[in-house]
Amino acid sequence: MLANWDGIEEFAMVARLGSFTAAAQAYGASVTHMSRSLARLESRLQAQLLHRTTRSLRLTETGQIFLETCKRLIEERDEAIAAIASQGEPSGHLRITCSYALGEKFVAPIVRELSTTYPSLTITLDLDNAVVDLIADGYDLAIRTGQLNDSRLVATRVASRALITLASPAYLARHGRPKDIEDLRRHECLVGSTAQWQFKANATFRPQGRWRCNSGNALIEAALADMGICQVPRFYLGDHLGEGRLEPVLPDLNPEEEPIWAVYPQRRHLSPKVSAMVEALRTSLPAHLASASGLAA
Questions:
Q1: Would the pLDDT of 244 be above 60?
Q2: Domain limits, the chain
Q3: Which of 50, 75, 134, 161 has its CA 20 to 30 A from that of 290?
Q4: Which residues is 263 bridged to in the sheet?
Q5: Sign of CA dihedral 18, 21, 24, 25
Q6: Does the fold of domain 162-251 match that of domain 90-153+264-291?
Q7: 1 or 263, which is more confident
Q8: Pfam families in the record, alphabetically (predicted)?
Q9: Cα torsion angle, 247, 249, 252, 255, sign
Q10: How far apart are CA 95 and CA 133, in angstroms?
């Protein structure tokens, strides 16, 4: 078993620091030890992990793939030891991916609070509207909405979001109020990042309009400027609805609320850092969203 592990940590250290000398100093071993450990590892794998020249080291394609696995192995080993030593207190490094809409305003404050609570925990929160592969990209946790299809992942519902269709009173006074979904075709629609608007009973509508933007805040500003009708998550509204600056359109056809999920690989199922983050989201995220929506929590 020890022989199978031999060289993995040395390889990861050399790859990270780009030099046998620097890696040896950081690892607390000789350059000879680092070089021989890596040679034995390559011999066992029957694959070259590094291109070596007198001036530089460079990962081979196989080495790049193997390095990601090694990093996860080392991290999970350290987490297992830390979990026992700290009796399950979250520690290590937690990588989270989330969309800008939810992440910047709502998830980031919860993450900051968790980081303050657990000083042994370091956290990276990556905001990206692309749906990344958690396992391939090495993430511990994602916050996502809607339907989930990846069987490799575990999902815990932590909150919900409501979609609302709306326009300014001035726009509706000039152009009239839509009577049904089909009636939206004669209106200026402010188009966001989703191709279809959602309505009750799984009805959908593909909006068309002269103005498009993938920012919910920008859509709200356009609606306030009397440019047309938009559909956005309710948490973008603030007090615009309550104070009459915007009005609901087709409110009887609002769709059911969409679930917001904390999603994580099955192997992270019992990790203290993931469990703590999921619980923090479940406890705090609904109140944050309700407050931004102009609703009581």
A1: yes
A2: 6-82, 90-153+264-291, 162-251
A3: 134
A4: 142, 155
A5: negative
A6: yes
A7: 263
A8: HTH_1 (PF00126), LysR_substrate (PF03466)
A9: negative
A10: 13
Q: What is the mean pLDDT of residues 54-62?
A: 86
Q: Of 290, 294, 191, 296, nearest to 243 (Cα)? A: 294
Question: What is the average pLDDT score of the chain?
Answer: 88
Decide: 234 and 164 in contact? Cβ < 8 Å.
yes
* CATH code linked to domain 90-153+264-291: 3.40.190.10
How far is Cα 139 from Cα 69, in angstroms, rounded to an integer?
Answer: 13
- Alpha carbon distance 59, 48 (integer Å): 9
Summarised one tens digit per residue, pLDDT across range 153-176 is 889 999 999 999 999 999 999 999
- Token pair in block for residue 212: 């498009």
Does the domain spanning 162-251 belong to CATH 3.40.190.10? yes
Residue 2 has pLDDT above 50, yes or no: no
- Look up residue 45 and give its two tokens: 């794998």
**In sequence order, what are the residues at sequence separation of 6 or more whose Cβ sits closer than 8 angstroms to the Cβ of residue 195?**
206
Determine the Cα–Cα distance for residues 207 and 185; give it in Å rounded to an integer.
8
Question: Which residues does residue 95 pair with via DSSP β-bridges, in sequence order?
Answer: 124
pLDDT in tens, 86-113: 566 888 889 999 998 899 999 999 999 9
Residue listed under structure tokens 């071993």: 29
Q: Which amino acid is at 217?
A: N
Considering the segment(s) 6-82 as one domain, its CATH architecture is: Orthogonal Bundle (1.10)
